[in-house]
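Take a careful look at the protein record below. Let me know whether the structure tokens fit the sequence:
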Amino acid sequence: MAPQEVIDSHIHLWPEATSNEESHAWMTPPGMPLAKPHLLEDYCQASKRGVAQDPDLDVKGVVYIETDVRYDPPNGDIATWAKGPLDEILFLRDIVEGRYGARDSSMLLGLVPWAPIDQPTAVLDEYLLLAKDMAGPQVWPRVKGFRFLLQAIEDRATFEKLVFSSTFVANLKLLGKRGFSFDVGVDQHSSGIWQLEAMATAMEMAHEGVPETKRVRFVINHLCKPDFSERGPEFDRWCNARSI
């Protein structure tokens, strides 16, 4: 029987130039094991070891998810304050256009870059145009959606003020209108189940009054990082919120 073909739907990569705390706040020294280049060559070596243990699987491609690159406080020229995420798109362009080899180019099937979903819709719209220009005609069709991590907003009032705002909801609707998805990155275990519950409400708001064909699709990252240590009220609330 032929091996089952698999698409890995959530991977992260970064080059030598951004393998540091200056580019990624979470690459904290000393001894941060991820503060080194992670390229598709490394991924392929690791996945081959996994396939060796299960020869019935064959990884045919991957979907790249943005890596929470640093950016400056939004102010003025987007190309300036969002340079980090835009440079990330240029890195992906290098891969797709073959600068890391034909295999890597063909494996990178989908891209989910960062986008300023928390900013006014006019800013998001301008950013999408700039991102499209940075990506180029060969790369842009592989962009399937965008992510803006919410898990670090640990103050409940601040979190809910953002995700329930008319701007945030309008931005989600804009992504849906353009045919893009939105990756939901919240953390029930570290920040609280309320993050997931609030985002579930925001998701409903983003679909309200929108034709089904234009509704933004949501991709739940890491199952919203639930606490599986024991069955209890928090687990039940996670199940309820996840099913919305």
Observations:
- The chain has a mean pLDDT of 91.
- The longest strand covers residues 57-65.
- The beta strands are 4-11, 57-65, 108-112, 145-147, 181-184, 217-220.
